[in-house]
Automatic annotation (TrEMBL), chain A:
The protein, known as: Rod shape-determining protein MreD
Main location: membrane
Subcellular location as annotated: Cell inner membrane; Cell membrane
Family, as annotated: Belongs to the MreD family.
Organism: Natronospira proteinivora
Lineage, broadest ranks: Bacteria, Pseudomonadati, Pseudomonadota, Gammaproteobacteria, Natronospirales
Function: Involved in formation of the rod shape of the cell. May also contribute to regulation of formation of penicillin-binding proteins.
Any Pfam family: MreD
Keyword annotations from UniProtKB, A to Z: Cell inner membrane, Cell membrane, Cell shape, Membrane, Transmembrane, Transmembrane helix
Membrane spanning stretches: 6-25, 37-54, 60-88, 100-121, 133-155
Length: 162, 323
């Protein structure tokens, strides 16, 4: 891996940074509820594509930054993203060859697990509110998956990240 | 099952370091420990401050297009528009300074009366203007980011106001920015009193940016729609007498212990970009105020004890146990 070009790492970092920024980008109130979990989507892609470089540790660190960024309980998103990363790295060989729509369904299942972990932490720390809108990000995340896939695949090929 | 989690794709990494399953397990345990420590407030404030060095630039970057747009629209404004705005502002300034004149004499009178009552005079407050960053933190919780941090002596628990009333309080501070919770956040409560008669209660956030809940008043309480709620100064977080909300509806429910009362915040919680941070006049935080005990208690003690007598009188002597 020592012969990897440096820009490969930058492509990963920049895509994660963009996802973090999109997660707090100001939106109208209605659209806020529908905001997909960009960080989770981007991490799912990178772990499917290059699990030997982006793995559970990366996901955990990204989650910790996301926690600090959104002011949630420190460790909440870190836990959820680490578990998500573990699941993805377990099935990446199969999911990678799925057609896009089957991938999207897998992503929906993964995002549901992610959301359930977030809910469990919120329940444990006594901050459970507004349950009826909690599943909207799962649906929008699934709908956005093909675009995330095409964009990041383009990025990966363009900068030769392997 | 376990074989599904071991990474067999890259032979270079095969067998080096713990498997993803073990690593994830350790990180999950670590996260749970962190969650527990952070939830029991304050244990991880240092870590949060360190992380804010990383996150504040991200928040600034997200805010950048909006502040740039604002600046651009300012520099592109037409001459007539600026003149009109200037005129309106001047009129408003005149009106406000006229009102302030009266306020100053009232303040002096209030201080004289308080001296007569031998209760501590309330001194003024120091105020710093700050700006909210345009970022969405979490749609279900009402949190905002301001562009002043511990470098400007902002402290956790500090009151946050706008031109019309109380907005909330600071929860975490970084070096350059701070995060604040709004009074309408479902986990926020603020001690208030009815301005008309001094009736004290607590206003809870509802998660709805236009509504506060007053669940602890009995059906017989003297409160009606239109009443102004101001901070009571109890709880030692907020200075006394700032407007919080206006009562919008009062439903007295026979058979229930408490009435259902709602209020609307006076501060423009979802519109203000300019906000104010408040200190005591000498720059010290409100909560470490040596005189910051509830005014009611202090007044009562002044009545029933001699000057200079600090211990409460009704405590019985406790020597004759072992002599």
């Amino acid at each position: 891996m020592s012969d990897q070009p440096a820009q490969g790492r930058w492509a990963i970092m920049l895509s994660l940074l963009a996802a973090l920024m999109l997660n707090i980008w100001p939106l109208p109130e209605m659209a806020q509820l529908l905001r997909p979990d960009w960080v989770a989507l981007v991490l799912i892609y990178w772990i499917l594509a290059i699990p030997h470089r982006v793995n559970v540790g990366t996901a955990w660190l990204a989650g910790l930054v996301l926690d600090a960024l959104t002011g949630s309980v420190l460790g909440q998103h870190a836990l959820a993203l680490a578990v998500l990363a573990l699941l993805v790295s377990g099935i990446h060989l199969r999911v990678r060859v799925f057609p896009v729509w089957q991938q999207a369904i897998t992503v929906m299942a993964l995002l549901t697990v992610y959301e359930v972990i977030l809910l469990m932490v919120e329940g444990a720390t006594g901050q459970l509110h507004n349950l009826e809108w909690r599943w909207a990000p799962v649906l929008t995340g699934t709908l956005f998956w093909p675009w995330v896939l095409f964009l990041l695949r383009f990025l990966r090929r363009r900068f030769n990240v392997a | 099952m376990a074989s599904a989690f071991s990474n067999t794709r890259n032979p270079k990494l095969f067998g080096t370091g713990p498997s993803p399953l073990i690593r994830a397990g350790m990180l999950a345990l670590l996260s749970i420990v962190i969650i527990a420590l952070d939830h029991r407030e304050g244990h991880l404030d240092r870590a949060r401050q360190a992380l804010s060095v990383l996150t504040y630039p991200i928040q600034l970057m997200v805010d950048l297009p909006h502040s740039a747009l604002e600046r651009a629209s300012e520099s592109l404004a037409t001459r007539e528009y600026l003149l009109r705005e200037n005129r309106v502002l001047q009129e408003r300034q005149l009106e406000l300074s006229a009102r302030t004149q009266r306020l100053e004499s009232l303040e002096a009178e209030n201080e004289r009366l308080r001296e007569l009552l031998q209760s501590g005079a309330r001194v003024g407050e120091r105020i710093l203007a700050a700006e909210l960053l345009q970022v969405d933190l979490d749609p279900f919780r009402h949190r905002v980011v301001v562009d002043k941090g511990s470098r400007d002596a902002v402290y956790p628990g500090q009151p946050l106001l706008d031109a019309d009333g109380v907005m909330g309080q600071v929860t975490h501070t970084g070096l350059f920015g701070a995060e604040a919770i709004l009074i309408t956040d479902p986990s926020h409560a603020i001690p208030v009193e009815v301005n008309r008669n001094g009736l004290r209660t607590i206003a809870l956030g509802t998660g709805d940016i236009t509504r506060l809940d007053l669940p602890y008043l009995p059906n017989s309480a003297d409160i009606r729609p239109g009443d102004l709620l101001v901070t009571s100064g109890l709880g030692m977080r907020f200075p006394r007498g700032y407007p919080v909300g206006t009562v919008t509806d009062v439903r007295r429910r026979p058979g229930e212990t408490f009435a259902a009362i709602h209020a609307e915040p006076t501060a423009a919680l979802n519109r203000s970009r300019e906000v104010l941070l408040v200190w005591r006049a000498d720059g010290t935080p409100f909560e470490r105020d040596p005189l910051g005990e509830p005014p009611l208690q202090r007044d009562m003690r002044d009545e029933e004890s001699l000057p200079g007598d600090d211990s409460p009188p009704p405590v019985p002597p406790e020597e004759p146990v072992d002599e």
